[in-house]
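So, can you check?
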Amino acid sequence: MSHRQILAFAIALTATLTSTSPTRADEVNSYAQVEPSLALVISKNGKGYATGTAFCVENDGKFGFLLTNKHVVGNDKNPAVILMSDPKSTLNAPVVRTAELDAVVLAIKTNCQAVRLSTQTPPVGTRVALAGFPAFQLSVFAKGLGLSPSFHAGTISSLLADGNMLEYDAFTDHGNSGSPLFDVNTGDVYGLVTAINVGQTGALQNNVAIGSTALQAFLENAHRDIVSALTAAGLSARSAVQQARSAPPVQQATEAPRQTIAAFLADTCPTAASVEKQADDAYHASDARSDDLYRNAAGFYADCASTMPSGPDRDVVVGASLDNRLMSVPLVGSPDYDQTDAVGTLRTIIDADTKLINSTQDAQLRTHLIGQRDHATAMLRAIEQTSP
């Protein structure tokens, strides 16, 4: 079966197993209205990545502005986004405004289709829906089945904080943070999804969104005086390859174990770890030298590994070399980008990951390597999709 046939079969099977009633026409229409406004957000957090959802709230003719949660971007001041209106491109999206309500505004140098923000608080019982990018959608994308948001409907369960926070019962998962909560009849957005709660049954229920009425003051004139600053900063759209460079693995190591590994690497391979730190600093500063520094760090880690006996410690160092080698692959459009070299490097990384996954006895490292391989595979697929 082809990928398209497999996907069609999986969708049909899922619908058979989970649907209890036919999809309503108003749900189809409201989703179609909101879907082009959605964006996948990809932020870098140390050695890991975080993802979430954003949606377009305004255009000024030159820049588009997206709303998402502060916790989605974390400390990354310059996350990447993929718009559903242009899913083959990845855009630089600096944070330009923050609020105490777990909300930030991101700016992109392109137009986007803005949603309609409701000025009303929905009463309890109102049928609502959310659309975004839960973790499952990313695993589907990594397997080559395409990137698509998912839609889940429910009702407003309760009004909290005088209606400024909305409790609802539509299925919500990690990655849905930053999704719009909207009216299934009109598509008007009532809130910004911000928190989930796993109930005693294990279902993801009793979820919370920040009401659009609570965000009105934050969003009014939220983009004043920033266009000139963005222009001076040289904000530009990036190629689709960045989506894979910034995409999280389907399974990834938690940040805490990675810090332990970082300490081990600093003790075992101090030169390599020092160069990697320089590369990280350059990357966060959008310094073009980061690619060369990551490439140098990969070489130093490989040299360090060559002096070590076989075993888990050596496996960790080899994994660090592969991490840095992956980060060194230049973006499409960058001065030193070469498609043949990029494809060859990514295939080498995928092969090396597979070999180490099959040989290492370190379960945590194996999980990280599986994610790294998915990361490289997604990057390779993005290059292939954008090749002439």
